Structures are given as C-alpha cells and as structure tokens.
Amino acid sequence: MNNGRHQPVLVKETIAALKIRHGGKYIDATLGGGGHTRKILEAGGLVLGIDRDPEALTRIKNELSNYIKEGKLTIQKGNFENLDTISKENGFGKVNGILFDLGMSSDQFESGRGFSFMKDEPLDMRMDPDLGVTAADLVNALSQKELFGLFTKFAQVERAREISGAIVENRKFRPIKTTKELVEIIESVPVYRRQKDLHPATKVFMALRIAVNDEPGSLERALPQACGLLAEGGRLAVISFHQGEDRIVKQFFRGGQTMGMAEINKKPIMASANEVKLNFRSRSAKLRVGEKV
After folding, report:
1. Across residues 79-94, what is the average pLDDT?
2. Using 50, 70 and 90 to split pLDDT, how confident is the model at 29?
3. How far is CA 276 from CA 21, 46, 105, 272, 289, in A?
4. Does the N terminus or the C terminus of the chain have fewer Cβ atoms within 10 A?
5. 3-state SS class at 47
6. CB-side exposure of 244: number of CA atoms within 13 Å?
C-alpha cells in the first residue's frame, strides 16, 4: 500500500479513455494532487485545472509551474458546478475531454480540516474554506431524525439510528467540536458487525463530508454542463468512489442520448489487483466514460 504522496487512481485507464491528442484541450474539473493533469500534459494536451481547495492550487502552481509558464496549463479556483462559466472565461469553450475524479486526495486528509478520523482536528470538512457550514455545525444543529437521514442517504451507515442518538445525547453536555470527540461517540455505539479494515467512523465521516460540500448536487449540476462543453467526439471520464456518486453518473450516461452522449463502457472500469495492492484507496474506484456524438 502506498503511504506517501497522493497517488491518482486508474491513471492509465483514464488517459486511454480520454484519447489525448497533441494540442487538444482538456478540463480536469477536480485538479486535486494533479496526477491526471500531469499525464495529460505529458501526452501533449492543454489543460484547464479547476479545484475549490486553495491549498491544492498552491501546490500545483509550484509543482507544474513550467507548464503554466508555457501556457499549457491554466488553473482556476472554483466549484465544478460552475463548470460552464469557468471554462468559457478561460478560453475552454469547446474541449476534447473532461475528467472528474470525485475522490479525496491524500493531501486533503493531511490538511488539518478534519477529513480524517485518525487525527484530532477541528470538525470542519469544507473543501472550500469559504463555505459557510462545517461538519461541526451539522453535528451540533441537526435533529436525530435529520442526522439519521443524512447518514443513511449518503453512506448507508450501519447503526445510523443509534449513532445519531448518541450524538444528540452527548452534545447536551458540550458541543462536539473535534474529530476525536465524534469518533469516541461513534465507538461507544455497539455494532452488529464490522467490515474488515473498515472503522465504524469511516462512513459517518464520509456522509458528513458529502453533506458539507453538497457533492451529489454539484455533480448533478456539472454533468450536463460538461456535455455541452465537449466537441464532437470529445470524451467525458468520471471516477467515482461510492454507490451514490456512481448511480448519478450511470443514470446520466444512460439518459445521455438526449444530449448527444453515448456511453462507452456499460460496466465501470475497475482498478487491477496490482493497483489495489499498491494503492488501497483504488479498491472502490469506478470509471465510467461517455462520448459526444
């Protein structure tokens, strides 16, 4: 398993799916650690990289500065739900390919914003620090019914009702402000079963992160915009990491004929056993690809 710097998943498969051509224009709507963008640039593509995390953009400015100076890479802070506006403002009105990698980068888990339950950090979870609502706000303000709904809708959390109740009971004494405090509450709830290598806090944290950043809503708003930006024959590649995301992508491609999109792979492309061995987070990655016709 890789424990170092962020390793992008399904890189070879994604680059092959996008059919990179020299001088073609591509949008990386989730720049993150820049792994996929680097490969597109190395293959001769021109890239607009978008990310709402200012720390990610700062790293890319340093690591890929030569490409920026040469005019081959443009980076822009923003949410991909505003993809159409951002792209056109940066001269990427018609492009040959668009990529969404919907996973968290390893760098974000090291950001100190509470994405990881393995450290004691403020319960924040905002990918964009300018967002108003934090995970702590949700945990301390939502009712037990609302927390239960959030946990089940976004992550199918086991014992969601009991965990929601424990959160509401504990916050009567003091607000829940840190990841450690939340993890201790979750761990106090007995579980019927535990998936191998899956901590009981894993899905709770995932559900909170998804809610704080409105990830499903942003994706649903972004996909039609991506279709509109693609030139004929352009490819849209989306890497998802949980069932809810994959369902949105699959349904979009299945209904894409009304927007001139053809689904390329009926079944999602998964990471090889070797990649999973080297990069454990790739185990749940699913790549779906569509083409503008």
Report:
1. 96
2. very high
3. 29, 30, 16, 6, 21
4. N
5. strand
6. 22
Report d(CA 237, CA 27) in Å as an integer. 10
Q: How far apart, in whole angstroms, are the C-alpha atoms of residue 207 and residue 198?
A: 15
Strands (E), 152-208: none
Cα separation, 216 vs 179, in Å, equals 23
Residue 96 is given by DSSP the state: E
> What is the spatial distance between Cα 210 and Cα 103, in angstroms, rounded to a whole number?
11
Please state the φ and ψ torsions of residue 247, each to the nearest 5 degrees.
Answer: -65, -40
Res. 280 pLDDT band, cuts 50 70 90: confident
Predicted structure pTM score: 0.91
Structure tokens at 256: 């894409």
3-state secondary structure (DSSP) of residue 139: helix
Token digits of residue 89: 């403002």
Q: Which amino acid is at 157?
A: V
**Rounded to an integer, what distance in angstroms lies between the CA atom of residue 12 and that of residue 69?**
26
